[in-house]
Amino acid sequence: MVYRCGLLTAQKEPVPLKSVEVQLEVRDHVATVVSTLNYENKEDKPLEAVFVFPLPGDAAVCHFSATVGQTQIVAEVKEKQKAREDYDDALSSGQQAFLLEESEQSPDIFSLSVGSLPPGESASIRLEYVIELNVQADSGLRFCLPAVLNPRYQPQGSRDGGSGNIQVTSCPSSLVPYTLSFSAQVSSPRPVSRIESNCSLDPLQYLNSEQTKATIKLAAGHKFDRDVELLIYYKDAHQPTAVVEAGQASAGLGTLMGDPVVMLSLYPEFPEAVMSSVATCGEFVFLLDRSGSMDAPVNHTNRNETRISSARDTLLLLLKSLPMGCYFNIYSFGSSFESIFPKSVEYSQGTMEEALKKVGEMEANLGGTEILKPLEHIFSQPCIPSQPRQLFVFTDGEVGNTKQVIDLVKKNSHAHRCFSFGIGEGASSALINGLAKEGGGHAQFISGSDRMQPKVMQSLRYALYPAVMDISVTWDLPKDVYATVLSPPITSLFQGQRSLIYAGLTGQISEAAEGCVTVKYSLAGHPSQNQLQFNLKPTEDSGLTLHRLASRALIRCLEMEDREPRQQQDESVKKKVVELSVQSGVSSAFTAFIAVNKGNGEAIQGPLVRRNVPAPRMMACGMPAFQSARGKSKMEILVGVFLCYILSF
């Protein structure tokens, strides 16, 4: 009998990933996340470990490095195919290599390949990203460290090809063989009043008497078997701010990374007279996910509450709160879709009761997650005159064609607003946030019943407000100072919700220089405006955080432009994305991080062996493939943070 030491999979194979360490630094509403993954090869053969894991869909991944022994190798950003070839060449010649790439179908999924880890060798992988934190209904800032990557369903006949069900290597969540340590430091101009979490925390510790700096960490013994959610509350709520960040001296003036960047955080205040006249009309179309995955638990704490029951409760609360005289209909979907009424009907006591009864009977029994077809059908229906269409989508986001779905919503955004609800842990942030952003609505994440009601009522309140029209932004800057907006145009504004603008600044800026931004818009026919005055002096020791967030915003705009249908193939937009990604060091759909350890030039001997990391046990379904560095098709289905890797040749 052979005895093996260390952590083992269910198949008695050693697990190369031992632990995950996460350090979070929050400055006001911007977060920097540093994750360190520690690997160890306790076998007698060199290993290649491949992990697929979730990140927030709007994160800007800006650093990737590996430490092997005393050697640190910092990765560089290259065009994706070139990075894959370099990785493949390195492994073929017996060198160590590390590859990090974003899924081409969903920006919230990444693949990390650790190649040629010799017997007895340890390696630490450092991954860094920056992200803006969203404001919640109760004014808290939400940070979510994704742990759960639910299998993504690949629709039949989609442009990326389909796949059948795949067996997932898994284990009970209590036996996930890698640990997590997590700590956070929070600082703000305003005092930190409290920090809450869905996980057990050690007591909050303040670092100064003003209570503007504080630290928190997870209680000992936490297993990385659930999303880690933090809700950060500041005193005096949120105020409009402007932060100017100095450019990188080595980049040179006239470039995005070399020039100063300003981030404006706007919290529009609408005139009271307009706000008091909330609309009592509208066509409310509800789209409920009834695919098989919705039968999974909404979170790991309460396994008796399923995603479908949470979605039902959310929808029932909305139905009971609609204004009399509006119109509504309810669609549900899986492999097919159906609706309660043939077309939208007027909301009355009778139609409400009929809808409540049918919604209460809905189960997660409609198969796969085919969301495109019901959306196409809804958008094909004629709008009702004087009844603005408001689309509410409830889903766990387990789709493999995320970008197709978002593109369809954007294409039809002139005729509706989209309010999205991500149900359960692991809901795709790329899909949920993308639907709301491109649909001019608002996104919410429901991972339990404790905060459901305020979130639901906030979205309904936003839907009842008239849409803000004719939004424009004007800049009043000193002579010979110019602003180039880097973020997409603002398409929606909501009372008290933050809107962000990134812009590059060029010209001679004196220390005492002041600027002013004016946002003009029309609300229910009433012209309104909000102004923000700010100092143009750059902040000290910013670490290029704003430059990277601005680069990410511009990269996402260009990627969406690249997906627009054209008469002829045009590679110019893709070329711009690659150039910007390489210049800024921020990942994109067309680039990847690659690091090669050339070491002492000696080749690593022996056949390369792959090892899988077991994941928390959940439902399996089809998932889109990453293209491997060797050009073969790999179907990867993982549930967990750095999860189980399935290879199908």
TrEMBL record:
Residues 283-468 form the VWFA domain. Residues 1-131 form the VIT domain. Transmembrane segments: none annotated. Gene3D superfamilies: von Willebrand factor, type A domain (3.40.50.410). PROSITE patterns: VIT, VWFA. It comes from the Eukaryota. Coiled coil: none annotated. InterPro entries: VIT, VWF_A, vWFA_dom_sf. This is von Willebrand factor A domain-containing protein 5A-like isoform X5. It comes from Xyrichtys novacula (Pearly razorfish). The lineage of its organism: Eukaryota, Metazoa, Chordata, Craniata, Vertebrata.
